[in-house]
């Protein structure tokens, strides 16, 4: 990154280690006294890919895409999109660069500062992070953006704001690690999950993927899948399949459409595929189910399953 002043480089080195300015030419750097935020933009960080380097600080990487990986010892650890990979000070590692540009935010936190903030939590032992991955609290990304803006614009009073944001970022990371979610986060998750369930009901005829649902909920696919199962007790696809079958049964009860038309309306590729799925769940074909409804041997109780 061009334009780093000597005083800024000293702050960066205090957090990162013996990095040279030339190794940061592709990196946007935002360094405070206790916290630094770094984003590779136009290429790799040459210090990050240097073999078995160490940091004097705690490092947390928040992956923006799925091409972020670290080699720690003999293990290569993939950092899932939207989650935090944690590494304690002094652990040799390097970024695995496959030639495709990884997108991530690296957060370096001063060792003593992080341990001081950790005292506010019921931690009874010294924790060593060696590539463990944690869910990221939704508020962290917005605080990181605020932090970068304050350092970049340097408006009057920015030092005070950066200090406050450094404390908040540190605590959001700690709460992510210990899975401490406030009621506000749980309510927000419930609204986002409900939004995707409404989408399922309104778009049964479409091809619906977990990635598409996660995008509607503004979450990474892995985080969305975990939150969805926590809220509903089922995976998103299992839930979707039950909704589809519920709709199939309702249309069979109405008796106005062919099996092929029902399959198309409910998101099945063909009547044969619908019949196969229906039989696995109910041990009878759709046509036998329809006949049972007509004869009265199957109760006419329909409606949403959930």
Can you walk me through this structure?
This protein is α+β, with helices and mostly antiparallel strands. The chain folds into 2 domains: 6-177, Jelly Rolls, CATH 2.60.120; 182-306, Arc Repressor Mutant, subunit A (Orthogonal Bundle), CATH 1.10.10.60. The protein contains 11 helices and 9 strands. It has helices at residues 6-16, 111-118, 139-153, 158-177, 183-202, 210-216, 221-232, 236-254, 259-265, 271-282, 286-295; strands at 27-31, 35-40, 58-63, 69-72, 75-78, 83-87, 94-95, 104-109, 130-135. It has a 6-stranded antiparallel beta sheet, sandwiched between helices. A 3-stranded antiparallel beta sheet has the order 5-4-7, with no helix packed on it. Strand 4 (69-72) and strand 5 (75-78) form a beta hairpin. Helix 3 runs antiparallel to helix 4 (158-177) and helix 6 packs across helix 7. The longest helix has 20 residues, at 158-177. The protein is elongated. The protein starts with 5 loop residues before the first helix and ends in an 11-residue tail after the last helix. The model is unreliable at 302-306 (pLDDT under 50).
The stretches of 5 or more residues where confidence is low (pLDDT under 50) are 302-306
Side by side, the strands of the main sheet go 1-2-8-3-6-9
Q: State the fourth-level CATH superfamily of the largest domain.
A: Regulatory protein AraC
Report on the biggest sheet: 6 strands, antiparallel
Query: Would you tell me the structural class of the helices and strands?
Result: alpha+beta
Number of discrete domains: 2
- Can you give the helix content as a percent range? 40-55%
The percent range for strand residues is 5-15%
The CATH architecture of the largest domain is Sandwich
What is the average per-residue confidence, as pLDDT, rounded to a whole number? 88
CATH class of the largest domain: Mainly Beta
Number of helices: 11
Q: What's the gyration radius in Å?
A: 26 Å
SSE pattern, N- to C-terminal: HEEEEEEEEHEHHHHHHHHH
- Give the number of DSSP strands: 9
